[in-house]
Design brief:
Number of domains: 2
Number of strands: 14
Radius of gyration: 25 Å
Structural class: alpha+beta
Low-confidence stretches: 1-12
Shape: elongated
Order of helices and strands: HHEEEHHHEEHEHEEHEEEEEE
Mean pLDDT: 89
Length: 336
């Protein structure tokens, strides 16, 4: 019975999405007075067969990538590229959705120009029905891609050390180790347009492309030295200094319980008086892994020792308020 209800729900969702795309196509066919932006013509079968979908491949996802290279199953950690195919460009999609919601074409046309440079998209990631993360609102796209192109590519893992659009999704997911249990999971991507300011920026836009893939997670141990998912590897190993850093953090009462220190400076950095050249203090940067309310996180801080004229004092103190890069990590990243 549950399976029947689930299948019915999926069918309803797909049908509703198809109906929305159909209505948008009707308006493009001349039934709307909207002054839409001209779009680059996409006449390849890959586009025609997958409008409204996010597709996946282990290969570089060029527009002309053969459809037999599209995949439905993926092993987490392998290379993965994504391409979203839209019925209309993000800017045109938003104007059409505004009209569909009841806004008059004349009103939308009067506010049309900013859509050219205020249109953006988000790739939103869900795992097993739960929203996990999305790409940055601040990412800069090519302006012409947002108003004149009905497709966009993103990387989940391009297999190199370079960071491309979309790979923040994988980095965020890696930090959710508690979700990445061994087995097969359902990875879902939605592409949602948004306007950064002004007219239409408060509207809750519907996804313009959706795709799912089965993601296999193998039973591999967590890498506590993964700088994206856990803590960066220490560049200085000094147990006495690490103990002083933990005490300095505790003395500032910043909240949470510090569990682990990774000194990421490869040496002390000495600050000197600008005229005499006499040392004033020396500092190192360290990442603190901490727990609070059953959750774990990490952040970077600078720690210092003052110079008293002849030697550096024994006390280490937190210098400043922190780097401001705190983010959640799995508690499995921290030593027991």
């Amino acid at each position: 019975m549950k399976k029947i209800i689930l299948l019915a729900f999926i069918a309803f969702s797909v049908n509703s999405h198809a109906q929305l795309l159909g209505k948008l196509k009707e308006k493009m066919a001349g039934k709307s007075k909207l002054e839409l932006y001209p779009e680059e013509k996409l006449d390849m079968p890959q586009y025609q067969n997958h409008i409204g979908q996010v597709c996946f491949s282990n290969d570089e996802f060029e527009r002309t990538l053969p459809e037999d290279k599209y995949i439905k199953t993926y092993t987490f950690g392998d290379k993965l590229s994504m391409r979203a195919w839209f019925a209309n460009s993000p800017a045109n999609s938003m104007m059409l959705q505004l009209e569909e919601s009841g806004k008059k074409a004349k009103e939308i046309n009067e506010n049309r120009n900013p859509f050219e440079y205020q249109s953006k998209i988000l790739f939103v990631l869900y795992l097993d029905g739960q929203k996990v993360t999305n790409t940055s609102y601040a990412f800069d796209f090519k302006r012409e891609d947002m108003f004149g192109l009905a497709t966009h590519r993103a990387e989940f893992n391009d297999g190199t050390d370079d960071l491309y659009f979309g790979e923040s999704l994988m980095m965020d997911l890696k930090r959710k180790q508690d979700l990445l249990t061994p087995g097969t999971h359902k990875l879902k991507i939605e592409v949602v347009p948004f306007k950064t300011a002004g007219y239409g920026s408060e509207f809750d836009y519907k996804p313009i492309a959706v795709g799912e893939i089965d993601m296999i997670v193998k039973n591999t141990p967590i890498d506590k030295n993964d700088p994206d998912a856990c803590l960066p590897k220490a560049k200085m190993v000094d147990k006495a200094l690490e103990a002083k850093i933990l005490l300095a953090y505790k003395n500032r009462n910043l909240g949470g319980t510090a569990k682990e220190v990774r000194i990421i400076s490869d040496r002390w950095y000495i600050a000197k008086h600008q005229y005499t050249g006499v040392p004033l203090r020396r500092t190192v940067t360290a990442v603190i892994g901490k727990t609070k309310d059953g959750k774990c996180s990490r952040d970077e801080y600078s720690f210092a020792q003052d110079y008293d004229g002849s030697t550096y004092q024994n006390e280490v103190y937190l210098y400043g308020e922190g780097i401001g890069t705190e983010r959640e990590i799995s508690c499995k990243c921290l030593s027991k």
